Structure formats: structure tokens, C-alpha cells
Amino acid sequence: MACANTEDTLLMYALHGTAVHVERIVRDFRRCKEAEELGREAHQQINRKLTWFHDEGGMLVIKARLPAEAGQMFIKAIEAACDEIPMKDDVSAETPNVKRRVHPSAQRVDALAMMAETFLAQGPVALKGGDRHQIVVHVDAETLRDSTAGRCNFEHGPSVAAETARRLSCDCSIVPIVENAHGEPLNVGRKTRSIPPALHRAMKSRDRGCCRFPGCPNTRYLDGHHIQHWAHGGETKLSNLVSLCRFHHRQVHEGNVVVLTLDDGAIRFVTPTGKSFDSTLQNHTQPLGDRQQLVATHEALGLHIDRRTAATRWDGETYDHAWAIQSLLHRLRTG
Fold first, then answer.
1. Virtual CA dihedral for 319, 320, 323, 328, nearest 10 degrees?
2. What is the Cα–Cα distance from 164 to 167, expressed in whole angstroms?
3. CA 111 to chain centre
4. 89 contacts 99 by C-beta, under 8 angstroms
5. Is the pTM of this model over 0.70?
6. According to the per-residue pLDDT averaged within each range, which of 37-46, 194-203, 314-323 is highest?
């Protein structure tokens, strides 16, 4: 934690403060530094896991390692479900007025069972826009804009990378708070959505409710992504927004994919190696350089390229994955 630049200051805090002071300072300082570390979320994603087994008594034992964001949503869901679980149980039918208090840990078990039952009854349902992330992130404006060290953490939870906060704030509800030098609130703005509902509907209509990354079949759990983030001056308008699934949205904010808008409205995804994938919409083309020269070059090569040349022929229908694999194996063995 300490380095040549901070050792003297930390020593002064240790000499002139209590253990509680030092602990809090060091903890928050570490959190601020971690806001610059994008690799922490990637590490969490790689190491996420959930396992279970039955013990000798037949009870199910669950062990989970959740990324910070998923963990916060899990806690919020458990807390919300706990509100629907009574804190007292009837002892028996013969003594209806005698009740015992339910231990909070047992109440959380009942809440988890309620969550499972609700999912089985209703299936997956994706909340929209600012309603989806019922988690609170505190982040300094400078940290959000420049990814510099500063406050960036879940409320009552761990710190997160500034880029993670930018991803969450692409499509969420925002409450700006102006504070003085001592961290005391001076003004609290009203709650707004980074993408208004009307604009959300327009984006969904344009993108046909699908992730725009080429070949991605996801139509649920989509985020509205600011191509140029609003913290960097990007406008919240249709031409600066694109629908991405959670996976590809994370890839963009982790620097694995760069999103570009072409002149004709198409979206280009570029990897760090320079490989690009274009996502076009109906009635759009992709002019590159001088159009006439490009057409002449294609004709000289005997190529006829139009807007349907690179378009996928997949219409969104399901397919038999096992049959597709067996077909390939059969061709391999009999080829």
C-alpha cells in the first residue's frame, strides 16, 4: 500500500490518529486506487463460480464466488425478497397465538427459495434501463470521466473500476450530488435516466430488439451503450446509442472491442488486433473511401458486392445444435 510518495503521510496518520482512523483511511485509499484497475473485473469474471452439494443430512450446501456487480444485485434481490417473508412463524396449529422469531439467516433461505419459485413461474424477465440496476455506485465526476484514482465503489460494498462504473452508467438512473471539500452534500439533483424511455423505444425499434454485435443472437438483457460516453461529452441521442448484450457491453468497456459509427449509420466493431466487424441495418451501405474507385476496383476483379453480400441469412430461428455437430462429424469421417 505504501510507496516512497505516500509512506511519510501514512506514517503521520498512524502517529496522530487512532487505529480506526488509519484503517478507514487505508481502506478508502485502496478503493480509490483500485478505481484505475480495469483488470479486477476481468479477473472476477474469469473466477466466478457457483457450486453445490448435499450434506449427510440431505441439506443443500451452496458455495458461490460472484463478481462485485452480480453480488450487489444478488444482495438487493435477497433483501427485497426478505421484505415479503414474515419474521415470525407459527409454532403449531394448536397454538396459533404463540410465535417464534425467525433468524435472519433462515429468512434469507426462505427468500432464496421465493426467488427460485418466482423465476420458475415467470421465467427470465429483463428490467429496462434505469430500473434494471437497483444498486448504488458512488463515483467522483473526475474518476468517471478520466479513470483517475478517486471514489468509485458500491454503496456499503467493494470498490470497482471506473470503467465498470461507466458501463453501468451507460443505461441507468443518475442522481448528481455536489459536495464540498469535506464530502458534505451541498446540493442533490433530481433523479434522471441516462437514456430517456422514449429514446429507449426508438433505439429498440431501430436495432430490432437485438444486440448489434454481428452474429450475436441475444434479444434479452440488453444495455443501451453510449458510443461516446456522456461523461466524455457524448450526447444522449439515437446516433450515439447502440444496443449491446451484457457480454459484448462488458467487452467494449474492458477495451477488447472499440465501437465506431460509420457515415451511413452502420456500426463497426474493431478488436485490438485491427480486425473489424460491421453491423448494418436494412437499406444501409458501407462506403469506404472514394465510392466510384472502389466500384471500379471490384469490377476489375470480377466482384459484385452489394448491401446483401455480407449480410447473414439467419432469421433468428432456433437450430438443432446436436444435429449440426453430427453432420460435421459425419462429413469429417466420410470425406
1. 40
2. 5
3. 24
4. yes
5. no
6. 194-203
